[in-house]
Design a protein that fits this description.
Helix 1 crosses helix 5 and helix 4 packs antiparallel against helix 5. About 25% of the residues are buried. The chain is mostly helical and about 110 residues long. It has one domain.
């Protein structure tokens, strides 16, 4: 029962933290995190696994797609433990919104690649 309400509570926590802070001073850090997670991370996964398994292996494309999803809400909890909850909360929300575009684009590229 608790597991079913955990995502809802996590969204309220993220929303509450973001509502408290001004996002503009940390846009560079947020952008670096989002680009790193949504673009660089899947690209590195593709390169490393292509070298190890070959680019035609279906596992490579699956792993790349999994790497392209935004970070989990635990990211905010870990950031709060280190005093950077502002940046983590804005990066979490920004990456979630941006992932609608990046994951869709990646799926489109994967369909034309496979």
């Amino acid at each position: 029962m608790v597991a079913s309400i955990a995502p809802v509570v996590a969204l309220f926590v993220v929303g509450g933290i973001i509502a408290q802070f001004n996002v503009s001073p940390m846009w560079r850090r947020t952008a670096a995190i989002v680009v790193g997670k949504l673009v660089l991370h899947p690209a590195l996964v593709f390169v490393v696994l292509s070298v190890l398994l070959g680019p035609a292996d279906p596992f490579v494309l699956t792993a790349m797609l999994i790497a392209a999803v935004p970070m989990l809400s635990i990211y905010l909890v870990l950031g709060a433990a280190h005093g950077v909850e502002q940046v983590c909360a804005t990066a979490l929300v920004t990456s979630t919104v941006a992932s609608f575009v990046t994951v869709s684009a990646l799926i489109w590229v994967m369909r034309s690649y496979a």
